[in-house]
Amino acid sequence: MYHYKKIVAVTPSGRKKYLEVLKDYIINNPLIDEWQLWQNTNKKEDIEYINFLHHNYQKVNVVRVEGATGNAYQIHKFFKYCTKKDTVYIRLDDDVVWMDKNSVLNLVNFRINNPEYFLVYGNIINNCICDHLHQKNKALEIEENIGYDCLDEVGWETPYVAEKKHRCLLNAINKNDVHKYFFKNHILEDYKRCSINVISWLGEEFYEFKGSVGADEEDWLSCDKPKRLQKTNIILGDSLFSHFSFHTQAEHMEKTDILEQYKKLKRNSCLS
Fold this sequence. Notes:
By secondary structure, this protein is of the alpha/beta class. The chain contains nine helices and nine strands. It has helices at about 15-25, 45-55, 105-115, 130-135, 160-175, 205, 215-230, 250-255, 260-270, and strands at about 5-15, 35-40, 60-65, 85-90, 95-100, 120-125, 185-190, 200, 235-245. Strands 1, 2, 3, 4, 5, 6, 7, 8 and 9 form a nine-stranded mixed beta sheet that branches.
């Protein structure tokens, strides 16, 4: 409990190769009371790893729903389990592979103190809206211009640009210079769509509609529901996370050493 609130992380799950990286950031964070793994896979290795996490870590719970075997359009069914009052929920993609040491704390504090926003986003590396802001603020110095659009053809579709984003962040981490990625909190005006790699909501708000979310969860959460409620979403500039890849980038990214670099960072942080 934190300020009389339960803190619950949730992750659509999941791919073992990424969960192995995310796991330590969640398990070792005393602020997080529970980690819900939303089982949405039919791959034996991944299911076995999800069960392993459940059996070996007290804070891990597995949530299963009918029909969730790997289709992204099944994820919306899980939100009905995230409607408890006095609870802060944080949804993290399974391929969030790094987070700054104070990111969760900053996100939770802001979420609790600012109920007027529907969603609070983390500041996410490899998220086109955030990438555009990083580039605008000279934190991301690459030749390619990333547009202010969730599905920008450079930021979302172009695999080698994703690699550049990660290499720039890894360089900043090694130089202890990640603060350059921070920016002033950014309100998503006009219900702008933004990829939901890291988002936070209040259980009592989702209780009002029983966690009934549209099949296109991203469009519903970032655009449709906020518009109906007349409540904006906001990106928290000092809550920094790294998201590995979109499906448009995955084949290329898997051929790089980027994931191993993040694993190395995790190992080193555990030794420090």
